[in-house]
Design goal:
4 copies of one chain form a homotetramer. By secondary structure, chain A is α+β, with helices and mostly antiparallel strands. Chain A is built from 15 helices and 6 strands. In chain A, strands 1, 2, 3, 4, 5 and 6 form a 6-stranded antiparallel β-sheet that branches. The interface between A and B is large, with 56 and 56 residues.
Amino acid sequence: MAMTVPDLRADVRSWLQIGLWCCLGFFTFELVIRSWPRPGSERHSNYLLSAAGLIDVLALLPIPVALLVGVPPETAWLLASLWLLKLTNFAPGLSLLGRVISLEAKSLESVLVIFLIVLLLAGMALHVLERAGQPAKFGSLPLSLWWAVTTLTTTGYGDAVPETFLGRVIAAMVMICGLGVFGLLTGILATGFTAEHRRRDFIRNWDLVTRVPFLRNLNPAAIVELTRMLRRLDLAERTVVVRRGRPGDCMYFIVSGEVEVQLEPRPIRLGPGSFFGEIALLEGGPRTATVVTTIPSTFLILEVSDFRAFTALNPDLARAVEAEATRRASATMGKTPEGQ
Amino acid sequence: MAMTVPDLRADVRSWLQIGLWCCLGFFTFELVIRSWPRPGSERHSNYLLSAAGLIDVLALLPIPVALLVGVPPETAWLLASLWLLKLTNFAPGLSLLGRVISLEAKSLESVLVIFLIVLLLAGMALHVLERAGQPAKFGSLPLSLWWAVTTLTTTGYGDAVPETFLGRVIAAMVMICGLGVFGLLTGILATGFTAEHRRRDFIRNWDLVTRVPFLRNLNPAAIVELTRMLRRLDLAERTVVVRRGRPGDCMYFIVSGEVEVQLEPRPIRLGPGSFFGEIALLEGGPRTATVVTTIPSTFLILEVSDFRAFTALNPDLARAVEAEATRRASATMGKTPEGQ
Amino acid sequence: MAMTVPDLRADVRSWLQIGLWCCLGFFTFELVIRSWPRPGSERHSNYLLSAAGLIDVLALLPIPVALLVGVPPETAWLLASLWLLKLTNFAPGLSLLGRVISLEAKSLESVLVIFLIVLLLAGMALHVLERAGQPAKFGSLPLSLWWAVTTLTTTGYGDAVPETFLGRVIAAMVMICGLGVFGLLTGILATGFTAEHRRRDFIRNWDLVTRVPFLRNLNPAAIVELTRMLRRLDLAERTVVVRRGRPGDCMYFIVSGEVEVQLEPRPIRLGPGSFFGEIALLEGGPRTATVVTTIPSTFLILEVSDFRAFTALNPDLARAVEAEATRRASATMGKTPEGQ
Amino acid sequence: MAMTVPDLRADVRSWLQIGLWCCLGFFTFELVIRSWPRPGSERHSNYLLSAAGLIDVLALLPIPVALLVGVPPETAWLLASLWLLKLTNFAPGLSLLGRVISLEAKSLESVLVIFLIVLLLAGMALHVLERAGQPAKFGSLPLSLWWAVTTLTTTGYGDAVPETFLGRVIAAMVMICGLGVFGLLTGILATGFTAEHRRRDFIRNWDLVTRVPFLRNLNPAAIVELTRMLRRLDLAERTVVVRRGRPGDCMYFIVSGEVEVQLEPRPIRLGPGSFFGEIALLEGGPRTATVVTTIPSTFLILEVSDFRAFTALNPDLARAVEAEATRRASATMGKTPEGQ
């Protein structure tokens, strides 16, 4: 995409054009398929009007239109960069960002008002102060506002710089305001993003927790607390989950899939609803066995700090985990003589 | 406003002036009306002395004064940008910002002291180090301070750049201090803004919660917790609140207004104090019906994550919601045969 | 101080010098007084060795030393800017900042290590890539590091700019790393500052709370919670605390001082341990009376949102406040006929 | 390292080379030792494949390879700056940062996607708008992207500045987007870093708390709460922990080591499991005695604000501390006559 512009040899250029035409064709085909009216369904109109559909149309249409209108091809193909918008469908964080912005709209709006007021006042002041000395740079209000924007965002190109004493004092205040505006913006976005993220994780983890019988039977308040602590982990098959001898800092609940605990005489297989890695948490030592997934698996991870905080308030879990650990240890002990 | 400055044709200019005079007249009229002494009331003096009144006066007076004093009209009309200050009355966030600044005054003050100390020390050091090599840029302390401000705020115009080795080392430290000062400022403003925002939302939501009988009857601790979780939503009439088939991520309590649940045989209308959207939360599926407002309505929204966390600790709400849902479902079932 | 440098007329300059000598004399005198050995006390040595004493010495000594050594007076007097350090004794936030830095030393250190590593790698890479094209700007590693510092802190003077394609790609990555380093620094400082601030407020408020009998008699857990919610307010005498007719958003506990509630027939005076402003919180209306301090007073403020959250969990306070409000209202009622 | 580049005299240069060869030799030796296969152990292969081993190899290999390939020595030795990477083994914060980045990968990824989209759209727009006026700076998409990167990160070199009106409006929007992206990045990294730090501190403190019998006997929920409040402090021998007469703001639990409380008649020694500094917290006055370590010691510090908040909810600790304080006071009283 970026190659369309610089001075290239003619053949590279033509190959690129062919590639671009192919992409255009493929995307058009994809769009037609997706939006094709299916009998008995009323979703096709939805697709073209949905956010994803609009982006697809927006990415496709401009190029042929530009070529038809007579724009030179070099310029027209630049519109291919709009294809990048299709990426947004794959970035889950973007919808999150959208929600944060809509939720915090009022705060963001008032920061924007502050931004605009400082901008206009600073632009006006500098225009009055500097237009005599630097007519080319502060001679009109728009020029002056351009300076104000670069300064307030602390970008500071340096193409227009105040030269009078008062102008510089005001510029210094604008910069400090810039830091403040920046701080507010950061605070609002960061707080909103964090809260929204936590909410989304909670919902996803809740579904996973209810699939583990061992956790599902806790009392509701404990489940809520645990849902906030757990973290999801997806692993491919034949991946090492914990390695023997490494320090243990968390335990694992199996939501789906299967793992193999590589114990000495004979490995044990654990399926959905089981847990492992609890010995390191209970006794504080290194991992006693290597655990490997046999099929693609999903786990819920409980960190050692959360485990301790949680079991202190909910001794049931600790007791249950300990009972299971003891049971498993004695089973292994019992098996070991047989196995050898 | 911005049009007054660039090179314009004479007729555009004169039209603009007429427009500006009209605005000036209107604002004066508005100010006079608002501050007119009403018999039996002592509020008129208050208005002129209040923040809003002061801003009004500040936005109006300078222009006639400037014209009388003999300032050329182009400059005088620049003062019209002060009218922008009147916007502040409409931005609720500004009063919030004012409160944050007054509450965090001590923290902000000490950050400012740090800023000033670093500024002066850096300015002095660079003046000593660079004045020999660049007298035009570091030859006096104010010039040197100008450099220090642009550097400490990480604006970096590049009009004055240290050239000695030691000067550059100090400049690097100033930049890092700048990041630190920035971080502190961001932290203080962001924390204060977030806390103040939450407080304001709490008060507003509290009033709304007490208007929903269903919520008002919970125990006080639960009301407080719920008030922190709920979010307000205002919708115009004939707006779709939830759409059938979409994933459900929250439930709605009607504070005021009315909605129509578009059920198959016959739509149901729900008034203030009712709730809807709970089925998606209880069963986790998509929305089962489209809901549309009939008049402008205000809702309180409870997210699914908050609903689960809350009902785990307060099973009463879950039971009540479930009972209502069952009642409504059976009512619909009962009606369906009749309706068809 | 700043006036010593620019081109000034000789008489202004000499007046300034006299002023500066006076200041120097005064500070020396002050230092001698403070550090004079008092009989029977061993604190004098402490003073010179304490932070405040060291700053005093550091601010005084350099100037005479510089003059004796033969430095030209203009330069020597620049050291007067060190007097600014004495300001630090008045900024309570600085000791706070010091504590934050010492508590978060490990985090800050690791951010600094990241900063240095990125700096050196970027400096080295750019030196290799750009030295052929721009020997004056990237010809040596220190020059290259100077560029890296200005870029990594996003200051961007623009005095040295990479021109090769690869150099610019690396520069872009350095800028993004800069944003990241910045973010970490901001996060660490902001979190630490906020936590430390809250801790300090808690200790101060605790002392004040224990002076209000009404609050002291709550159960300990409630006191802790309340201490976190209250905010201190110091007002001079004859200052309006609440104004009649304004919306009420908080109530006040008097820690020390006295206020006059300007009720209609006869004003009431309230002393330490009393509270006022509770009617607006209980009933949600505007202030019913203006309250003015008679002597300098200290209050503890409880916001309406905190009041509601707190009383929901601790109904005792609400009942006590309500009882007092009723008692006061009936007393006023009873007095009114008498008063007129 | 940095000395290899500038114009130096030949002898300094040769000495430097010898020094560098020595370092190279030492590091090679160190690497060989560490990775030497030990009989009966399978860890040697692990070392070379572990993160630390990879860094060691990465720091060593490039230099000889470069020299062999025929790169001029000045350039080859620049690779010595890779030795800096070995520092990372000593910075505990780096592994923390690594974990934060892996945990927040999804959020960071979506911020990056936003960054890239804004970048490409801005680059394309500016290329179209400015290429006519400034072909040297915006003539190709890569050039235009370079401008977009410097602007979006608010670095603002000023080497390429838009000159058309529309170009500047877009540039202003890019700068504001830059602030937003920055804010998101800061928020994600700061939140993640803080959470991870707290988790790590919790685990470390837990181990220490369980070594103090006095704390270990509290109920589990109290231990969890206390573990979150305590802070670790390591001091060398003969260091003053608290000084008589200073205001007291925390109490100390001795995890390991020994201190001497310098009481008047005869100093007392306290060993692991003891605590001191509680009088200032219980009574609010200054420290009553100086305490000095006799051997290197580890303490857990409980701030006064946390002490009050904790004891309000857990009166047991307060009672126990008070009982111990009384016992100690009476013991001292009893000893004083004897001692003299």
